[in-house]
Specification:
The structure is a single chain. With about 130 residues, the protein is of the alpha+beta class. The chain has one domain. It is about 30% helix and about 10% strand. The chain has five helices and three strands, in the order H-H-H-H-E-E-E-H. It has helices at about 5-10, 30-35, 50-55, 55-60, 115-125, and strands at about 80-85, 100-105, 110. It has a three-stranded antiparallel beta sheet with strand order 1-2-3, with no helix packed on it. Helix 2 (about 30-35) packs antiparallel against helix 3 (about 50-55). It is globular, with a radius of gyration of 15 Å. The two termini are about 30 Å apart.
């Protein structure tokens, strides 16, 4: 299996961002964070804070949006999720069990019509 040497890349100063490849994959950042922290090669596992940064402020940096998003800062767009567990307080192996309890887009609670991961993937395909 070919895998990305994320830890080595971070150690060499490479800035890495992460996100979903929807509609090619099911958009599930929790599983992406889990995968980064539980890399098949134990030497390439990254810390939970680094994985969270890859999905937040580093992603905003790569799209040149760091002045508008990526951190919970007054005046920035407030897209965020509320989780049922704190990923910084559990073992990395349990990150996959975290559930999103609510989502906020631009500071307002978002109530999707389609809620399952399959439905979200299907919706992204229909919008493509």
């Amino acid at each position: 299996m070919v895998t990305v040497p994320m830890k080595d890349m971070l150690d060499y100063g490479v800035r890495i961002s992460a996100g979903s490849d929807a509609p090619c994959t099911i958009p599930d950042p929790v599983m992406s964070i889990h995968a980064a922290c539980n890399h098949p090669n134990a030497d390439q596992r990254i810390s939970v804070p680094d994985a969270l940064k890859m999905h937040t402020n580093r992603s905003a940096c790569f799209t040149f949006d760091e002045s508008n998003r990526g951190t919970l800062t007054a005046g920035k767009m407030t897209d965020f999720v509320v989780l049922d567990q704190d990923p910084l307080e559990i073992t990395p192996e349990k990150i996959k069990d975290i559930k999103v309890t609510s989502s906020y887009l631009n500071g307002k609670k978002y109530e999707p019509i389609l809620k399952s991961p399959f439905a979200l993937a299907l919706k992204s395909l229909l919008l493509y």
